Amino acid sequence: MNSLSFIIRSLRKLRFLFRYRKYASSIQRNGFHLIIDLAIHAGHCGMGEYVSDLITRIAFALRTDPTISDIWYRRHKDEIQLAANNIELADLEAPQVLIFLDCEQTDAIEALGITIDSLLDQSLTADSVHIQLFNSQSDEDLQRIQECIDESLFEKRTSIYPQPHEWWSGSAGTNDVLVTTAGTRFHPCAITYFAKALKARPLFVYSDHGITETPTNRLRTIIFKPDFSIDLLRCTNYIGHTFACSQQLLKSLDRSLPPTCYDLQLAAGSQPENTVHISKVLYLAPDNSHDDTFVSIKRSIQQEISRDQSRLDFTLLPATGQNSYITQYRNLNVPLSITIIIPTRDKIDLLKTCIESIERTKTDNPFEILVVDNQSSELETLHWFDAAQEKSDHIRVLRADYPFNWAKLNNHAIGNSQGDIVVLLNNDIEVISDNWLDQICGQLTRKDVGLVGGLLRYPDGSIQHAGTVTGFGGNTDHILRSLNPEVIPPDCIGNPNYQREVTAVTGAFMATTRPNLAIVGPFNEEFVVCGSDIEYCLRIRQAGMTTLFDPTIEMIHHESMSRDPRAPEADIQLLANKIHEFGVEDDPFYNRNLSKFSLYPIPDIV
User: Fold this and answer.
1) Rounded to an integer, what distance in angstroms lies between the CA atom of residue 336 and that of residue 444?
2) DSSP string covering 51-109, please?
3) Is the dihedral of CA 219, 221, 227, 228 positive or negative?
4) Tell me: the pLDDT tens digits for 535-580?
5) What is the pLDDT averaged over residues 572-594?
6) Beta strands in 295-351 (DSSP E)
7) pLDDT for the residue numbered 22
8) Do residues 457 and 554 lie in contact, with contact meaning Cβ atoms separated by under 8 Å?
9) Nearest to 351 by CA among 371, 374, 368, 366
10) Who's near 194: CB < 8 A, 6+ residues apart?
11) Helix (H, G, I), strand (E, B), or coil: what is residue 37?
12) Spatial contact of 99 and 185, defined as CB atoms under 8 Å apart
């Protein structure tokens, strides 16, 4: 990366700093003091590191402040309208609208009125409106609902279903369906955008949305969403209760089993490539949930296992957040052999800590530890290598007598091993999870999972790695770095407490299978220190496989204690070129509306 691009990126970070800091009262300081702080830290830990940390702290301090969301949304909704003016409505087929209404919810009729009014204000009129009631107690409910309908527009095109699941048993028609709940307020161009997306015949379409306060209807926060992630959806309903599904998806479901909203979303997981995420805030809604998530998730996983014909067992465990779960997988086939590769150069105390933590693992899968000795010279280290191999039949030392190259070292070791599963570890890793190897084997037994990464913490417990996001400053970075996983809000994109698809994970810990390595090829040895791990993940994605972040695999990372932490400029530039080549400047599992300078998600108002 040349000096000019570095200077431009630094200036943009400083612009972020001065633009956002005035909203963060807990971090406010005048410009003079801020410049003094920058100068002090430039000589102490590096200005870039200090600015990145300060940006993250400012963004985190603003997580509960609606000011930034409100500023961003007022501009965003005008941009939505402006872009919609270029869409030819005559080419679009409007969907049906299905509104779920719980008659026991507070102000149910008022909530329905909000949704109906926003439908009346659409630039593209809905084909028809269907209102499915729940907990309806009397004919009075039905009468009040009928009075809520503006018959001048929806006459003869509105149906009300008083009995639970009545719409499902009698649903028909050729139009796709926009599903929502009472209380949703659509942007005037929402149906236009959904209809445009449905024109390409996807199974499933969803958008970003805003959460409103009750009863003021004031915008509280915005839910920025990633592209479709079946693993994240099994953890938590990140999509919400408004989405569009095709007739093809509806017809694929068991007609004898009325689906919840969650069932409809999870069904799209059979063809994730046939889903569309519209990264626009097309509606505002109160924060509510009515689905039987446990039953829906369990059924979804069972269906996936049945489709893949995999011999897997699984357990659903409660996760952070209401109605949230983590899935533990266990391979029921013949145990898989595992090779754990650890490049090292001296620093024997780090290596011993790493290996001792591995040996505490509880697993029925046989594993070997292959230590790659990259020109160690200290006598204590060399003596330990000899003693470890004599003492243990599952520790081997492989000599690598050439200058450090992360990709070359790991390729060398992979070529000198035979494990069904290949695990790459830095020597400064300390494994925390007891069952990590069983979880790796279970995840990698799933047909579409190509590579697995985990939650890495600094020694103080804060996040070092919870998935890598591409596009930060034209390169990559670890989202939520230096924050504590336990304080991250459940609806935060990239939540470190949930399993989810990611674009990339760090090579400090990653695991894949030998067949996947044969498909994707070796690590790219053009990279010297860093970047080949990210580029490898991009090739996994290009091959049609998933890179998965799994927080049940937890480790401590004493980052870069065994080498210089600074990345070579050549590696940085090469990775930037690869990110452009693979077309992931906007990470599909992040959101293009968020700032690329804050590791804590915040709307981009700069």
Assistant:
1) 10
2) HHHHHHHHHHHTTT-HHHHHHHHHHHHHHHHHHHTTS-GGG--PPEEEEEEETTSTTHH
3) negative
4) 999 999 999 999 999 999 999 998 654 444 567 889 999 999 999 9
5) 95
6) 312-318, 325-331, 338-344
7) 64
8) yes
9) 371
10) 95, 178, 205, 207, 244, 278, 282
11) helix
12) no
Rounded (10°) angle between helices 3-20 and 47-61: 30
Residues 6 or more apart whose Cβ sits within 8 Å of residue 228: 204, 206, 268, 269, 272, 275, 277
H-helix or E-strand containing 540?
A: helix 532-542
Give the CA count within 13 Å in the CB-facing half-sphere of 397: 23
Strands 421-425 and 338-344 turn out to be parallel
Distance, CA of 52 to CA of 46 (rounded, Å): 10
**Nearest CA to 440 among 325, 301, 550, 334?**
550
List of residues 6+ apart from 8 with CB closer than 8 A: none
* Whole-number Å distance between alpha carbons of 214 and 107: 10
Q: Quick one: which of 216, 209, 214, 184 has its CA closest to 115?
A: 184
250-281 burial, b if ≥16 CB within 10 A, otherwise e?
beeeeeeeebbbbbbbbbbbeebebbbbbbbb
SS (H, E, C) 153-186: HHCCCEEEECCCCHHHHHCCCCCCEEEEECCCEE
- Residue 361 CB partners (closer than 8 Å, separation 6+): 367, 431, 434, 435, 436, 437
Contact indicator for 502, 543 with CB cutoff of 8 Å: no
What φ, ψ does residue 536 adopt, rounded to 5°?
A: -65, -40
Question: Which range, of 26-30, 166-170, 186-190, averages the lowest pLDDT?
Answer: 26-30
The tokens for 66 are 């609606």
Q: Are 7 and 13 in contact (CB under 8 A)?
A: no
How many other C-beta atoms can be found within 10 angstroms of the C-beta atom of residue 218? 11
Query: What global pTM score does this model have?
Result: 0.92
**Distance of alpha carbon 95 from alpha carbon 335, whole angstroms:** 49
Cα distance between residue 83 and residue 85, in whole Å: 5
Rounded to an integer, what distance in angstroms lies between the CA atom of residue 332 and that of residue 305?
12
Residue 591 amino acid letter? N
Side chain identity at residue 330, one-letter code: R
SS3 132: strand
Sorted by sequence, the CB contacts under 8 Å of residue 103 that are 6+ apart come out as 133, 134, 135, 136, 137, 141
Separation of alpha carbons 606 and 254, rounded Å:
48
Peptide bond into 489 cis (omega under 30): no
Asked whether the predicted pLDDT for residue 137 surpasses 90, the reply is: no
Measure the N-to-C terminal CA separation of the chain; round to a whole number of Å. Answer: 23
